[in-house]
Amino acid sequence: MTRLLQRFLGSGDALARLQDHAARLRRLQGALDGALPPQLKDQCQVANLKDGVLVVSARGGAAAVRLRQMLPSLVDHLTRAGHAVQSIKVKVGTPEQVEWRRPPAERHISADAKATLSAFADSLPADAPLRAALERLVRRGKD
Predict the structure, then answer these.
(1) Strands (E), 43-111
(2) CA-to-CA distance for 74 and 61, rounded, in angstroms?
(3) What pTM did the predictor assign?
(4) CB distance 9 to 15 below 8 Å
(5) Distances from the Cα of 136 to the Cαs of 31, 43, 127, 128, 139, in angstroms?
(6) Overall CATH class of domain 9-92
(7) Model confidence over 83-104: pLDDT tens digits?
């Protein structure tokens, strides 16, 4: 399947140029990852390369500021690695949105109620679903 896809992508002039550009961006991403500190590797992504200007997208403002401080050394590193990069432009991307979840409800159970529920749970068969639920309620309940 990949050979057929490679043949298809290499068949047209425009598609071949697009494939070459994508491969160049992947190599640049690998070189950029090698130059960045570990905490920035997941925060920075190569976006494009045009006329010697590398566009890098940072996931937030803090990562963009740190990346801008490192620009001279990054350009030097990429040039020494054989990439035709004259300058780097940093764009700030939006951070990934985390789905909001309602915090779990706190269960306040008195010590007497916990003891009673535990005793009742112990009287049930070991494989009973009600026993597992009661034991979980006792464990998670706050005094």
Answers:
(1) 44-50, 53-58, 87-92
(2) 18
(3) 0.57
(4) yes
(5) 50, 39, 14, 13, 5
(6) alpha beta
(7) 888 999 999 987 666 677 888 7
